[in-house]
Amino acid sequence: MKTAYGVLIIWLSICSSALADIEVSPLRHVITAKAREATIAVSNPSHRVLDARVSWVDLTATETGYAPAEKQARKLLSAAPYLIVSPAFFQLEPGGRIEITVKLRDGVTPPQGERRSHLLIETAASRTPIRKASANGLQVDIGLSISTPVILRNGDHAAARIGETKLLRDDDGMLLLATAIEPAGVISTFGRLTATFKPHGEDGVVQALGIRDNVAGYLDAPKRMVEIPLGYESLGEGELTLRYEGAAEFTGQTFDERKFDIAPPE
Question: Whole-angstrom distance between the N-terminal and C-terminal Cα of the chain?
Fold first, then answer.
């Protein structure tokens, strides 16, 4: 048991160190025939020099995240053949910052609908000391990769509906709202889910229950499963409202809204 605990601590230390080695902003980019260029800022908050490589990877959206795209799916999905990225390699001193530019190729018109590739930034492994209880140090090689979606778009009809919704409980017995976002347009959606509750009665005041930001409904996944911790053991009798609101280029748009009657606890 002691050995397993020691391995866990080492793993957590490696992860914490790696995650602090690179910052990327923003984490989503849209390119169109009018907005033909996107800029990604990469910074190095660590104390080591970063040598990095920039490339493309094609990932298929799933209900809960992404998976490597199969060859046939890549033909219909990949935006990379239409785009140019620079620089392909860079080095960042501690505290340094660089901008990566993604451009639509000259003379190219985006195909109808939407395509997506993920910009992959990989840093070379660096030998890093990890402290442990004994007098000796442990040396590990840390390499880090992070990807960010780049969407190539030619269309303007974004739509989605809120699908099957359930109230569950987490491991601590607190309420958890689980729902599905189902895209229904010709381009993907992006926004946030908000959950509110209004107790029955004339004096019922609407209460904010929870928010889930950065919710994308990609067309290559029939649905996206989303969970929102509500922070309550029970809600009482009233009406729960779940709303999928647009963000970024969809700010001000409501994709869907559903209301649910909550029965009094038994």
Answer: 43
In this prediction, the residues of the chain whose per-residue pLDDT falls under 70 are: 1-20, 125-143, 202, 264-266
**Distance of CA 254 to CAs 44, 110, 136, Å?**
37, 26, 58
Burial of 114 (0-12, 13-18, 19+ CB in 10 A): buried
**Prediction pTM value:** 0.82
- DSSP bridge pairs for 187: 158
With CA atoms as reference, report the closest residue to 193 among 233, 221, 219, 161.
161
Distance CA 160, CA 255 (A): 6
Q: What is the pLDDT of residues 110-152, one digit of tens each?
A: 999 999 999 999 987 655 555 444 455 555 555 678 899 999 9
Q: 160-262: which CATH number, 2.40.128.110, 3.30.70.1350, 3.40.50.2030, 2.60.40.10?
A: 2.60.40.10
